[in-house]
Design goal:
By secondary structure, the protein is mostly helical. 74% of the residues lie in helices and 0% in strands.
Length: 123
């Protein structure tokens, strides 16, 4: 099994791409702050999921990387809140993106709580 087949990875990737497209409309003065931060954190979710999957031989490393992915996902929701407060997102966009982020978080937490279902050999 490849990490790209993980539902958490696929949904996180889709969310990062939607955020990328929407953030193109953010003001120019946000390029090196909000735009950069929200793109980095949303993409980092995927990077950490892929790293965790490759480290599944080591249960603590697997869970640690997934915890990092969960943290990055939470950071993304914070940036979404700022984007809403700054009126760069509509309430509907914010709700949809936040709901997607919540779903990604649930999937990541399922992986954390059930590492044996992802090829991790528990000792």
């Amino acid at each position: 099994m490849d990490f790209k087949t993980l539902i958490a990875y696929q949904k996180a990737f889709d969310l990062a791409m939607v955020i990328f497209e929407i953030s193109k409309s953010f003001p120019k003065e946000e390029t090196y702050s909000l735009t950069d931060q929200i793109r980095r954190s949303s993409r980092s979710v995927n990077a950490n999921i892929s790293e965790s999957y490759r480290k599944r031989r080591y249960p603590k490393h697997f869970i640690s990387k997934l915890t990092d992915a969960d943290g990055e996902n939470s950071e993304t929701t914070t940036w979404l809140d700022f984007a809403l407060a700054c009126k760069y997102l509509s309430t509907e966009q914010h709700r949809d993106l936040s709901n997607q982020s919540i779903e990604v978080g649930k999937l990541i937490n399922y992986m954390i709580n059930n590492p044996d279902k992802f090829g991790v050999k528990l000792v």
